[in-house]
C-alpha cells in the first residue's frame, strides 16, 4: 500500500503502517532499505498545509540544526511538489503521556530521571537560540532504551537576535501555555518553555494537569492559568512543591530560568550532577570507517564521499551515513545491504569481500540471526497511536490580538531583553549510575553481547506478543498476552472474556460512547458537541479496548483489558478509561 502511495520513497524505504497523526502530518513506520534501520516518516501534504507550510519549513530547519541525544534525529528531508517527507529517528516506546497514564503517576525518582532528560534537551535548544513553544508529554517520545526524545518543532522560534529576544505569537496547547501568552503580551520563548516544563513535571508527579477545565465552566481555564491557581496534592514532597512553584510562577521574571533548573536541588537530589545539556556526539562528525562503507557503495573515494556528505543536504546520502553511524555507536554491524547496491559496484564489492568480512568479525559478538539486519528483526513492529493537536491560541480566541505571523517559527518583530542562555554547569559531584544512564550513549546500552541478545530477545518476544494477538483479533478467541510489559492492560477478576466484553460494551454505552466491536476489540468514539455530524473531524476522542487473556507464571490465565488511545486529548482519554474500567473491572 505504502509503495504505491509514496513513490518518492519506493526505492529507498519500505513504508509500513501509520504510527501517529497530528494536525499537520501523518507519521509512518518504515525501514531504510540499505541499512535495515527502522525510521519514522512524517508525511505532510502541501495542499492541506496552506499557510502552515512555513511552520513545516521552520521545523525542518530546526531539526537539521539540533542534534542531541534527547531530540529525535532527522535523517533525510524530501521536498516534492506535493509532499514533504521528514525521515527521522523512530521512537518505539510511544508517547511519554501514555506512559504517565499507564502508570497513573510517576514516583519522584522516576519523574526526576525523565525530567532531567527533557530539561537537557530544552536547555540545549535555548542554548542554540531556539524556543520550543509546544512542550507537552505528547511531544516527548520514548525510544527502545527508555530514553526520551523531543519531537514536533513546528512551533519553535529562533529569533534573529537570539533567545533573549521577545516573541509575540501566542501558540501551543492551552493547558501548557504560560500566562503571558494568554495575556497577549510579548514574551520570552525560554520563559514560556519553563512554564510548560512546570506543567509537564506536574503531570509526571501527579498524573493530572495543574490547569484543567474539567469540572469547571468553559472559559475558566485561561483565568486559572493567568492567576497561576493550581492544587498541590498532598503526596508532593516539599522540594517538589518548591520546584513546581518556581516554574509555575505567573510572573515570568520571577520564574526559574533554564540555567537555575539545571542546578535545582530537586533536579540534583539523590546525588545527581547538575544536568549537562551538551550533546554527547558532535553535530557533524566524520567517521572514516562509516565513510568507507558509504564510499564503496557509491564507488567513490573516501575524500569524495566526505566532500559530498559535508554539504549536509539531508538527502539519502546523509540518511545512510547517519543511520550507519548510529548502528556503529550501538555496537551493531554497520555494513550496507549489498542487494541494494548498483549491480556494477556490487560485483566489485563481492570481489573485495574479505575486508568486509573482517569488518564483520569485529562485531561478531553481535552477529546472529537476531541481528537487526536479519529479516525477523526487521519485521519487528511496535504499537503507537495518534494524538491531538496543538492549537493556535489566538485562533481559539483565548488570546485576542490581530493575526500576525501565525505559527511561524520566526517571530518577525522581536525585541531584545536580557536573559542569558544556559552555560555548561560545573560538575560538582561524582557521577552516579543514574546520571550515567541519563547521559548514556546508545553504545553503552547495547555494546555487550549479553545485553544485546537480551534486548533483542525481549523485542522479539514483544513482537510475537503483538503480532499473534493481532491475527487472532478477528476470530472468536481473545488474544493471549504475557504478563510482562503490560503497563497498558487492566486486569479483571473475572475469568470469562465474553462476560468482560459484554460488561465493557454496557459500560461504554452507559457513558454515551459510540462503539464498534470486532472480535474482542472495541473501538470507542466520543464526538464534540450535541447533534454534530459524526465526521472524523468532530471526533474528540477515539480509542480501542481489547479483551485478552493474560498468561501468568504463578496461576491460571486471567482476563485483562488492553487500552490504546488513537486520537484525542490524552487526559480526557485517561478520565474516560478510568470511568469505563471502573464500571467493568469490579
Ligand atoms: N520519531 C517518531 N517516532 C515514533 N512516532 C512518532 C515520531 N514522530 C511522531 N510520531 C508520532 O506521530 C504523532 C504526530 O507527530 P507530530 O506531533 O510530529 O505531528 P504534527 O502534525 O506536527 O503534530 P501537531 O499537530 O501537534 O503539530 C506523534 O504524537 C507520535 O505519536
Structure description:
- Residues 353-453 are annotated as: Disordered.
- It is found in: Cell membrane.
- There is one protein chain.
- The protein is an alpha+beta fold and 586 residues long.
- The protein has 3 domains: 13-91 and 290-343, Transferase(Phosphotransferase) domain 1 (Transferase(Phosphotransferase), domain 1, Orthogonal Bundle); 94-267, Transferase(Phosphotransferase), domain 1 (Orthogonal Bundle); 479-585, Kinase associated domain 1, KA1 (TATA-Binding Protein), CATH 3.30.310.
- It is built from 22 helices and 15 strands.
- The protein has helices at residues 2-5, 46-49, 53-65, 96-102, 108-127, 179-182, 189-206, 220-226, 238-247, 258-262, 265-268, 288-298, 302-309, 316-329, 343-351, 353-362, 375-378, 433-438, 442-446, 449-473, 497-510, 570-584; strands at residues 13-21, 26-32, 38-45, 74-79, 83-89, 140-142, 148-150, 166-167, 187-188, 479-482, 489-491, 514-518, 521-527, 539-551, 558-568.
- Strands 10, 11, 12, 13, 14 and 15 form a 6-stranded mixed β-sheet that branches.
- β1 and β2 form a beta hairpin.
- α7 (189-206) packs antiparallel against α9.
- The longest helix has 25 residues, at 449-473.
- The model is unreliable at 354-389, 400-421 and 423-474 (pLDDT under 50).
- Bound molecules: adenosine-5'-triphosphate.
- Adenosine-5'-triphosphate binds at residues 19-25, 27, 40, 42, 72, 88-91, 95, 138-139, 141, 151-152, 154, 384, 387, 389-390.
- Adenosine-5'-triphosphate binds next to β1, β3 and β5.
Amino acid at each position: 500500500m505504502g509503495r504505491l502511495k509514496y513513490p518518492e520513497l519506493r526505492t529507498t524505504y519500505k513504508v509500513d503502517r501509520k504510527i501517529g497523526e497530528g494536525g499537520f502530518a501523518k507519521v509512518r513506520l518504515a525501514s531504510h532499505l540499505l541499512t535495515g534501520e527502522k525510521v519514522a516518516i512524517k508525511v505532510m501534504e502541501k495542499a492541506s498545509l496552506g499557510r502552515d507550510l512555513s511552520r513545516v519549513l521552520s521545523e525542518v530547519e530546526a531539526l537539521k540544526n539540533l542534534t542531541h541525544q534527547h531530540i529525535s534525529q532527522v535523517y533525510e528531508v524530501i521536498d516534492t511538489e506535493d509532499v514533504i517527507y521528514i525521515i527521522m529517528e523512530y521512537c518505539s516506546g510511544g508517547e511519554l503521556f501514555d506512559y504517565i497514564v499507564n502508570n497513573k503517576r510517576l514516583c519522584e525518582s522516576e519523574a526526576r530521571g525523565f525530567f532531567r532528560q527533557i530539561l537537557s534537551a530544552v536547555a540545549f535548544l535555548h542554548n542554540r537560540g531556539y524556543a520550543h513553544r509546544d512542550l507537552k508529554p505528547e511531544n516527548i517520545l520514548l525510544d527502545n532504551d527508555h530514553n526520551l526524545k523531543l519531537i514536533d518543532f513546528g512551533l519553535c522560534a529562533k529569533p534573529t537576535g537570539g533567545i533573549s529576544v521577545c516573541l509575540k505569537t501566542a501558540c501551543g496547547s492551552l493547558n501548557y501555555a504560560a500566562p503571558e501568552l494568554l495575556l497577549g503580551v510579548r514574551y520570552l520563548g525560554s520563559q514560556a518553555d519553563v512554564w510548560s516544563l512546570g506543567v509537564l513535571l506536574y503531570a509526571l508527579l501527579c498524573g493530572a494537569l495543574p490547569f484543567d477545565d474539567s469540572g469547571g465552566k468553559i472559559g475558566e481555564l485561561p483565568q486559572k492559568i493567568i492567576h497561576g491557581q493550581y492544587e498541590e496534592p498532598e503526596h508532593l514532597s516539599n522540594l517538589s512543591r518548591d520546584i513546581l512553584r518556581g516554574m509555575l510562577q505567573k510572573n515570568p521574571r520571577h520564574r526559574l530560568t533554564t540555567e537555575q533548573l539545571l542546578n535545582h536541588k530537586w533536579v540534583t537530589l539523590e546525588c545527581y550532577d547538575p544536568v549537562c545539556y551538551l550533546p554527547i556526539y558532535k553535530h557533524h562528525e566524520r567517521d572514516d570507517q562509516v565513510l568507507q562503507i558509504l564510499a564503496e557503495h557509491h564507488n567513490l573515494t573516501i575524500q569524495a564521499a566526505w566532500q559530498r556528505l559535508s554539504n549536509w543536504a539531508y538527502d539519502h546520502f546523509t540518511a545512510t551515513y547517519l543511520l550507519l553511524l548510529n548502528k556503529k555507536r550501538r555496537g551493531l554491524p554497520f555494513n550496507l545491504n549489498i542487494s541494494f547496491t548498483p549491480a556494477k559496484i556490487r560485483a566489485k564489492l563481492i570481489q573485495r569481500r574479505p575486508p568486509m568480512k573482517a569488518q564483520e568479525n569485529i562485531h561478531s559478538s553481535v552477529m546472529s540471526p537476531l541481528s537487526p539486519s536479519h529479516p525477523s528483526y526487521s519485521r519487528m513492529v511496535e504499537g503507537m497511536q495518534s494524538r491531538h493537536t496543538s492549537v493556535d491560541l489566538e485562533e481559539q480566541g483565548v488570546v485576542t490580538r490581530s493575526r500576525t505571523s501565525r505559527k511561524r517559527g520566526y517571530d518577525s518583530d522581536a525585541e531584545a531583553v536580557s536573559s542569558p542562555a544556559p552555560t555548561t554547569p560545573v560538575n560538582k559531584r561524582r557521577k552516579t549510575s543514574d546520571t550515567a544512564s541519563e547521559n548514556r550513549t546508545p553504545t553503552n546500552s547495547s555494546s555487550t553481547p549479553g545485553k544485546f541478545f537480551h534486548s533483542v530477545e525481549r523485542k522479539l518476544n514483544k513482537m510475537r506478543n503483538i503480532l499473534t494477538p493481532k491475527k487472532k483479533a478477528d476470530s472468536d478467541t481473545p488474544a493471549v498476552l504475557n504478563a510482562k510489559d503490560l503497563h497498558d492492560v487492566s486486569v479483571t477478576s473475572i475469568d470469562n472474556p465474553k462476560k468482560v466484553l459484554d460488561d465493557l460494551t454496557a459500560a461504554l454505552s452507559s457513558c454515551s460512547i459510540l462503539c464498534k466491536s470486532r472480535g474482542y476489540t472495541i473501538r470507542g468514539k466520543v464526538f464534540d458537541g450535541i447533534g454534530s455530524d459524526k465526521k472524523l473531524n468532530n471526533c474528540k476522542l477515539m480509542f480501542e479496548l481489547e479483551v485478552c487473556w493474560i498468561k501468568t507464571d504463578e496461576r491460571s490465565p486471567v482476563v485483562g483489558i488492553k487500552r490504546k488511545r488513537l486520537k484525542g486529548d490524552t487526559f480526557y482519554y485517561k478520565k474516560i478509561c478510568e470511568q469505563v474500567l471502573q464500571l467493568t473491572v469490579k
